[in-house]
Amino acid sequence: DTASNERPEDRAWLADKDHFIHPYTDFTTFQQEGSQVIREASGVTVTDTGGKAYLDAIAGLWCMNLGHGRTEIADAMGEQARKMAYFNTFGHSTNVPASLLAAEVAKRAPGSLNHVFYSTGGSTANDTAVRLIHYYFNRLGRHAKKKIISRNDGYHGSTYFASALTGIHGVHLGFDRISQDLVHHVSAANLYRRPAGMDEAQFCDYLVDELRQRIHQLGAENVAAFIAEPVMGAGGVLVAPAGYHRRVAQLCRENEILYIADEVVTGFGRLGHWFASEDRFGHVPDVIVSAKGISSGYCPLGATLFSDAIHEVIAVPQAPGGVLSHGFTYSGHPVSCAAALATIDIIERENILSHVREVGPYMQTRLKELLRHEVVGDVRGDHLMAGIELVKDRERRINFAPDSGATHKVFVAARQRGVIVRPVGNVIVLSPPLVISKAEIDIIVDTLHETMSEVG
Ligand code: PLP
Questions:
Q1: According to the CATH classification, is domain 73-349 in 3.30.420.10?
Q2: Nearest by Cα to 86 from 304, 296, 342, 332
Q3: Which of 113, 265, 292, 427: CA 20 to 30 A from 234?
Q4: Single pTM value for the model
Q5: Average pLDDT, integer, range 75-94
């Protein structure tokens, strides 16, 4: 039996093709091409089983913030796994890393966001936000306050409820949605595609007015929360007009609607701060949702942060012996929390936030050069999040047809040249590890210059 003599990495390709249902995958090309098996990774480089190395310009999936192969994080995880790999945190049990991490996160969170509920990733952290907000209003006797307002093109995850929050049209194709009346979407803050004739300030007024009208239409007494990413990620890296988040937060406050900031991508340094809501956009949300960068992608972890005001209501027994019946087996998993503690330690020790504040604007400035290519309609982003929107007709801002595969061609051409970018719809997305250097940013931009000429 030759198969059993093969190394696991040689068996992986076929095993994958036959048995592994991949997330978010085009099965036409998958059947033809199979997968690229990534074998090892170090710093900003990943290597496939053919031995070819690539610059990972997407940090795995917006998450490997400190880069690959960090032995400090792996050691912290290994040490915790050997000492005590798991025990539940339900009721009165806890573990050392989960407890310490909650305090470290609270210390860095804005305002009174002092209380952390752990889950396993961004989707479960968003589900937690909504479930506990509903519970909060129920406890206050405001049982009608249930509706959530989200935004078109927002991405909030793939569990049944997080997918309902998600406003990207394409991801709903062929799927059902839970109660359409529970989640309502308003316009994306898409400056590039704003109505003709509006400047940035007028567009901001337009968006705030739209939300005001929607709240009025639904009845503020029926709306529990508004959810938004500080900078939209998977929806195409959309940076809102100046003042947008602050004004929306104010509108929410006036209507006793809680503001949930989905900082799954923007939290833990991608925009040069621990959290972007206050330090980049000037407002303190009621709830912050975090995942990905919190453990630098080394282990699954989600954390939903709640304000003192919400905590005061939900952390009180409903009746003697009554429990807050929400939680996951892996809420506060010690190995994930140990990875997160090591992550925070490195971010601090290596001054990663100031590094991002230095290289982030450099990346944005260099990427603007791509506008010299006719197929590039817009280049946008903030610090180490960037989106390059491709267009067939720049003058009229018309995108390529969905089946043209324009962004996929850029992805393939860049990969051949040793750089991994991410095509989402008409946009090439970049979210490199936060440790990226200016020289590595140059490689990404130069590679994109070369690949753009192959599209059209
Ligand atoms: N929220 C945002 C803003 C995200 O970008 C993502 C994932 O990309 C999620 C939530 C879902 O996180 P997860 O895939 O860990 O469930």
A1: no
A2: 332
A3: 113
A4: 0.97
A5: 97
Amino acid present at 174:
G
User: Residue 167 has which token pair?
Assistant: 């406003």
Ligand 1 lining (C-beta closer than 6 Å):
121-123, 126, 155-157, 229, 233-234, 262, 264-265, 291
ipTM: 0.99
Measured in Å, residue 229 CA sits from the centre of ligand 1 at: 10
CA angle 218, 263, 104 (to 5 degrees): 125
Q: Which helix (H) or strand (E) holds 118?
A: strand 115-119
Instruction: Assign domain 36-66+374-452 one CATH number from 3.40.50.300, 3.30.450.40, 3.90.1150.10, 3.40.120.10.
Output: 3.90.1150.10
User: CA 180 from chain center: how many Å?
Assistant: 24
Gap between the Cα atoms of 292 and 109, Å rounded: 16
Query: Mean per-residue pLDDT for 365-376?
Result: 97
CA distance 446 to 441: 9
Residue range 117-123: mean pLDDT, rounded: 98
Residue 66 phi, psi dihedral angles, 5° rounding: -95, 10
Among all chains, which residue has been given the structure tokens 């129920």?
138
pLDDT for 3 equals 54
- CA 194–ligand 1 middle distance (angstroms): 26
